[in-house]
Amino acid sequence: MRNLFAFIYRFRAFLVFVLLESLCVYLIVRYNTYQGAAFFNSASRYIGQVLEFKSDITDYFRLTSVNSTLASENAELRKELLQFKLAAQADSASRLDTAIYAPSDTARVAPYLLHAGRVIHNSVRRTNNYMTLSIGSADGVQPGMGVIASNGAVGRVKTVSEHYATVTSLLHSQMLMSAKIKKDNTFGTIKWQGGDYRTALLDYVPLHIKPVKGDTIVTSGFNTVFPEGIMIGTISGVAKEQDKSFYTIKVKLAVDFAQLSYVYVVENTRKAERDTLELNAGIQTDE
Amino acid sequence: MNRFGIKHIAQLIIFVALQILLMDNLVLFSTGFCFVYIAFLLFLPIEMNRILLLFLGFTAGFAVDVFYDTMGIHAAATVLLAYLRPLVLNLLTPRDGYDTNDSVNLHVMGWRWFLAYALILILTHHAAVFFLETISLQEAWYTGIKTLFSAFFTGVVMIILQLLFFSVKRANR
Fold it and tell me: Transmembrane segments in this chain: where (chain B) (predicted)?
């Protein structure tokens, strides 16, 4: 017994080293997965406060670009609103007798709510990128919700605290996003390969389709995370490889992740209903 | 002992804050990362309790992990660094051993000693971080280049810190 203690004492440094390393490996395996929620992360209250303080300072240096983004978004929205107004003026259907006028199906009433949030921490150059938003469960944000910016899809909420949320960016090695080519509705999967933060890959587009450079890629709406038709990017290169039955398509992302300042968290009010239905039907939805 | 504790805890906080608030935004050509917080471990006194060193390493790495959302990766790398530090110090012992007032200081120990000491440890740490981040050995050459370039970057920043804050006067005392 004494020998054992002597042995432990002699190799104490090594044993502590092994102990700490195994703790680290446990942490990596347990919390570093794409979906795994961590207790300690940038959404937790005090960490969020530090990050918000930092962003309060650095945001002053890019006020001009933030303002111009918001202004162009306003212009875009006003343009759309104007079109609706003109259409409403020209449309006489609403004045018809309700017995004749059949309202469109309920699915067309958008079940999506948007929560605006400020990005207080962001990274684009790591292998697995995350961002932190200054809105949390108090504002209605829940894990698993989609996040979009004014010009395209951004990512998915990973964890939330009361006032902060951590978002898995599209620039994450394990993030997959269901997408489709807008012109012919061919669907595929968007995946980021690392390296350049402006380009991603579109996988699983079969060879009989003819995608060309410049085609628009949008979200497919096949899952409850994103509404259908949110911009992802445009095709910047199509390659056919010898031994593959799918194209290798490079997509230039619409969102400049390095410039994000305000984003919207998408709440799907019918998510629970649709998810239980699909679960009961035995459909495995990925993502 | 008590003064030692306060001084080094202050250093720990300063280095981690420097890492999170400033160096986080400073990435050269998307490959050069600067993990300057490990300077805290490298600049600790030469004679140190190895267990305490391991725990300090874990604390520093864990603090950075929490802000970077990379749970465990930096902690694992810094614990490895803390474990290797005494071994590297032994390896680099001058011919007549360390003097009592020797510290990790460029002016006291000389350029050759400091560069060898810092580069070995920085390279190990950065390699650990980047390979743990990708897990697979795919694109190993890219990760390798990233490691080399980042280690060079961190090394230069560390030398600048030495030249700025570790004065010759203190060394001659």
Answer: 12-44, 50-68, 75-93, 113-135, 147-168
Number of domains observed in the structure of chain B: 1
CB contact under 8 A, B30 and A123: no
Q: Which of B8, B25, B123 is nearest to B67 (CA)?
A: B25
Beta strands A216-219; A176-181: pairing state: antiparallel
Q: For the whole prediction, is pTM greater than 0.90?
A: no
Which one, of B4, B114, B101, B120, lies nearest residue B52 by Cα?
A: B4
Q: What residues make up the domain containing B138?
A: 2-90+99-172
Q: Render A70-120 in DSSP notation, one character per residue.
A: HHHHHHHHHHHHHHHHHHHHH--GGGS-TTT-PPPPGGGS--EEEEEEEEE
Closest residue of chain B to A130, computed from CA coordinates: B69
Q: What is the mean pLDDT of residues B112-140?
A: 83
C-alpha distances out from residue A276 to A36, A92, A221, A273, Å: 21, 40, 17, 5
Residue B172 contacts A, CB cutoff 8 Å: no
Contact B73 A58 (CB under 8 A): no
Within its chain, how far is the Cα of A200 from the centroid?
Answer: 14
* pLDDT tens track for A88-145: 777 666 555 555 555 555 545 567 888 888 888 888 877 788 888 888 888 888 888 8
CATH of the domain at B24: 1.10.1760
CB of A209 less than 8 A from some CB of B: no
Q: What is the pLDDT of residues B29-64, one digit of tens each?
A: 767 788 888 888 888 887 778 888 888 888 888 888
Which among A28, A58, A130 has CB closest to B72? A28
- Residue pair A190/A176 in contact by the 8 Å Cβ criterion: yes
> Sign of torsion, CA A55 A59 A62 A64?
positive
How many Å lie between the alpha carbon of B113 and the closest alpha carbon of chain A?
25
